[in-house]
């Protein structure tokens, strides 16, 4: 059974060449990364992670916070997502998600989903692939 800590995720991200705590200057200047690890980054989105509390689980559960450069459908600039990773199957799914109108998941959620989504295979080259790789150390 695998157990991930913030330090372990940072180590994996560093080994994979992913940013681990610094963001490129620009629209990301307002993003607060305290208590989160920058795990994957694209031109319009940054994904930060921290382990879910509790015993190590299979599938692995991780909190993921997405920060977007531009508002997404519904007006969200930030989303916090409890994601499960099936590392042996190459899949992930969202267990719970909340979208926020402000960066850093500030204010009340615009919407919250508590029904787990179906398992989906990780798309190569996507932000999800960067997260999957860092979490599962594939």
Walk me through the structure.
This protein is of the alpha+beta class. The protein has one domain. Helix content is 14%, strand content 33%. The chain has two helices and seven strands, in the order H-E-E-E-E-E-E-E-H. The chain has helices at residues 6-15, 127-136, and strands spanning 37-41, 45-51, 60-68, 78-86, 91-100, 111-113, 120-121. Strands 1, 2, 3, 4, 5, 6 and 7 form a seven-stranded antiparallel sheet that branches. The longest helix is centred in the first third of the chain and has 10 residues, at 6-15. The radius of gyration is 14 Å and the shape is globular. The model is unreliable at 1-21 (pLDDT under 50).
Task: Give the helix/strand class.
Answer: alpha+beta
Q: How many strand segments?
A: 7
Beta-strand percentage range: 25-35%
Overall pLDDT level: 82
Radius of gyration: 14 Å
Count up the helices. Answer: 2
Number of individual domains: 1
Give the ordered list of helices and strands. Answer: HEEEEEEEH
Low-confidence stretches: 1-21
The description of the largest β-sheet is: 7 strands, antiparallel
**Broad shape:** globular
Helix fraction, binned, reads 10-25%
End-to-end distance, in Å?
A: 15 Å
Helices and strands in order, then pairings?
Elements: H1 6-15, E1 37-41, E2 45-51, E3 60-68, E4 78-86, E5 91-100, E6 111-113, E7 120-121, H2 127-136
Antiparallel strand pairs: 1-2, 2-3, 3-4, 4-5, 5-6, 5-7
